[in-house]
Hints:
This protein is α+β, with helices and mostly antiparallel strands. Helix content is 65%, strand content 8%.
Amino acid sequence: MPERIADLKVDVASMPTPALRRHVFDPAHGLDMTDVTMLAVANNPMLKVARDERGVVHAQAFAAGLLPDPVLDFSRGYPTAGPAGSTAYGVGLSYALTSLLTHALDVRAARASARQVDLDLLWQEWQVMTQSRRLFVRCVYQAKMLELLDQETRQREQFHEQLAQAQAHGDVSLSDVSSDQSALQAVESRRDDMARQLLADRQALNGLLGLSADAVLHLLEPTAGSIPGEAAMARALTTLAQRRPDLLALQAGYESEDSRYRREIRRQFPSINIGFSQGRDTDAISSRNFQVSVSLPIFNRNRGNVAIEAATRQALHDDYRLRLVQAAAAVSRLLKNGAILQQQHAELVNSEAIRAQVDAALARTVSPGDLSGMQRLELRLRRDDQRLDLLSIEQTMFEQKIALEALVADIGEE
């Protein structure tokens, strides 16, 4: 797997959406969200396997378009006893007419299956795009939060060291030092948890992009975007069946199964084979023959295959309807969660502005000795905790936006 990001190349023309095809891929100055999305589509190992499998289905579609070959029979006989005037031979040519009856439906079913595979691959690409964007956002925001937690840990460690020195001189009690030690351990644990989560997400992103686990990605900060409104989502849902690849794939699958269902119905009719032959027996008598064989649909009548294809077609129809319902329900849920997140975000921004005003007022009015070291530290830590909460909400809002765009098939540039 490659480790040098600057050496990576992406075929822009092969990208699955117009927004990606318009973007200039240049990793030399860092990767933005669109760069990561393009790299995921071009280099994801699972997508490479899926593209190889697609070739098999297209080959099957080509094979289905070919007519079956006629059958040529030849026989030769030699007399072994008794009077015989000549050797015997037979030449025959036969063809199964039933294959002509179902050929058009076979072709239609195979072509629809090939189209379904293409759309399924496109949907897999969209899922990889969505996952890469989600991991991109997580890595960027978790790095910011880890930086704040590192800063908070350093401040706690410095203060704890000062407190331990004061306790050695008898200026503070041992219980105060012990209590501060617990607070320090809590901050260190929170920082370590964030570091592990960031490491896991970075490695997951590298794996998704087909890169070495040790590859270092310079991720650029994404442009914040608001969660789409209900009116925009309602409009998107009305045309969802014409845009989302998995729904289009199910439509193609239904068309393929409908053709197979009709083919099995036609196969209920008697199968007919016709043939012509010419031969000569050992008495040197030549003859020409015309043969017709017809199956008698008495017991089987292909009813089992008709039932199988009918049930498969119905399952595809029900799956299609279910996904439409699930998409609408998921959009409704995400929009409601988004409204709550936007309210929380606004409240935190307002609270941070008020805290900044309070801190400025304290700096102007309070003398250096009026606040203890613990009080000053707690003021800074509360401010940092508020920033952490704000970053966490912004990350969640970004992920909600990405989820909504994936649901309504609207994945574009950041």
